[in-house]
């Protein structure tokens, strides 16, 4: 992974489009451990009642926790820290008095296989992760591995499919379906309660260094808000896309000037965004139709985590802000 992509992958959340459909299959060979990557079939391995689960993919551990399975170890992609047990504030209490081993994300997805082996896992989750067959093979020499379907771009798995895969692998598909249904029901309710959202153009923009960007359809930040009735601001569609994210050249910063916007910085204090002359020149900002959030704001973290529970947490807090901004649209 390049330094640029690594920075984006850690800071942006990498919660993106379902690009490989439910026709994916279980991948296995004659080795003892298998790679499970299909949400509608039972895995080819049996787990004990209280499996030892090591969660390596982005938010994989939080999803397992929401299904009633407490991972023994979590790769802390978002640096929630030991005080939050490697998950967001909306989920930490579900561990109760148990505490997982926290694997710091400083290595950006490079794993210590000896360390993982010594955890004696029954199952390894590496679903929202890089598509790296060498990593998968090394992990499956330790225990069965759950991955995204073959061919899924790095970290680019839809939150619903990620939940389905993990739930099915744990034998808890009903619980997974319930988590998904609760989140989609909330989206439906919020959309019905806010009919003025329908058809309003929306941008979730970012400032990092001296550059700007916008999230695209397929990313949870955009898609979750779009489910409330908002639509993509057309100029964003004309930008050069890098997966789930489009760079915005300085001379095209007006592409961020939608009817309603959310802006957040990446790797810098909120003040640097708030004091940015180009951002402040946009009518969406001048008219009070832009919501500016710190990178560490719980709403931003919830959207970045991109789990059913974190999206509910974020939506419940963001929607009143969106309603206030939308009320200013002329």
CATH architecture call of the largest domain: 3-Layer(aba) Sandwich
- Which bin fits the share of residues in helices? 25-40%
Helix/strand class: alpha/beta
- Give, in order, the helices and strands: HEEHEEHEHEHHEEHEHEEEHHHEHH
- Termini separation comes to 44 Å
What is the number of strand segments? 13
Q: Under CATH, the topology of the largest domain is which?
A: Rossmann fold
Q: Which sheet architecture does the biggest sheet show?
A: 7 strands, mixed
What's the rounded overall pLDDT mean? 87
Low-confidence segments, given as residue ranges, are 1-32
CATH superfamily of the largest domain: Nitrogenase molybdenum iron protein domain
CATH class of the largest domain: Alpha Beta
In angstroms, what is the radius of gyration?
Answer: 20 Å
Query: Which shape, going by the Cα principal axes?
Result: globular
**Count of discrete domains:** 2
Descriptive notes:
- Strand 10 and strand 11 form a beta hairpin.
- The N terminus is likely disordered.
- Helices cover 35% and strands 15% of the residues.
- It is globular and about 60 Å long.
- The protein has 330 residues and is of the alpha/beta class.
- The protein folds into 2 domains: 177 residues, Nitrogenase molybdenum iron protein domain (Rossmann fold, 3-Layer(aba) Sandwich), CATH 3.40.50.1980; 133 residues, Rossmann fold (3-Layer(aba) Sandwich).
